[in-house]
Amino acid sequence: MIRSTFIASGAYLPEKILTNADLEQMVDTNDAWITERTGIKTRHIVAENEMTSDLATKAAQQALKNANITADELDLIILATTTPDNTFPSTACKVQANLGNKTCPAFDIQAVCTGFIYALATADNFIKSGQYKTVMVIGADSLSRIVDWNDRGTCILFGDGAGAVILQAKEQLGTNQDTGILSTHLYSDGSTRDLLYVDGGAAQTNGEVGKLRMLGTEVFKHAVSKLVQCSKEALEHNDFTIENVDWIIPHQANQRILEATAKKLKAQDKLISTVRDHANTSAASIPLAINSAIHDGKIKNGDLLVLQAIGGGLTWGSCLIKI
Ligand code: UT7
Fold first, then answer.
1. Could you tell me if the CB of 264 is within 6 A of ligand 1?
2. N or C: the chain end with fewer CB closer than 10 Å?
3. Does residue 132 contact residue 73 with C-beta atoms inside 8 Å?
């Protein structure tokens, strides 16, 4: 069977860094509270004239360089974002133009913090069907643009950034010893949409984009159980146990969620965490964490990774991939 194999990754974080001390000057908060409740110390914030497509383009260019291929060799670009530059055209089309590819299909996926898993699943199905061979999957967000900077319950949590991976078709045996994406597992429950949402949008508020609203404690309760459920499902689906896994790479929302989930999976020593430095970068957090872990020499060829995410919708999902 055809599998989607991992070829390379790339990442980009905006230059400006916002510390917990900076936030103390903006809202009624303090470094001790943020550190204890979230594990976050710093987040990167886009510059005045910088947009999601700029972050995504830089991450994609780095991934192309690391893969040693040109933009012309891409058959498809999928970009997961909740903060597109414009309502339309898609941010993926802007990135395609920036990269210099003039023909391949390019589109955005909107599943908030689960966006990168949804995008990977979509890319994987295009590859497995034989329709496309080389696919760029990007997660990019500028959540700082839609955060309410007067709401201390949310503004301390988010940051901006982009990560990209390139997947390529490879004929394999079809066993759990194959490399590449072994399976993806996607979920949503729109009846819980009021737990995490933006209070505006093109159709609802006549073009006013709106601000992010969240019932944090409620989302927290859903997060751990749903992340554990979809991660276990990915392992069982492929006849693996947690002992076979090298790394758990969760969406980076809150260190307490990451640790509670890893503990329930009995994989505390396999947790990749970048939330301290990056905060919650929504669709970008997983590819940013993958890229960091490769750069740090943690992830090596042949490693088995469980990717897992939850976000607005609620949406959640997992992906089992052997690098
Ligand atoms: O990416 C999508 C998924 N999103 C998530 O996974 C986020 C999930 N939720 C969370 O991470 C946590 O719920 C938060 C970090 C948002 C909040 O932590 P919490 O332990 O659930 O705190 P809380 O909202 O129950 O607030 C506890 C107290 C409250 O004060 P009182 O009512 O006990 O007096 C808040 O007003 O902490 C207060 N508080 C703060 N204090 C200092 C809330 N935000 C802050 C703050 N600084 N920034």
1. no
2. N
3. no
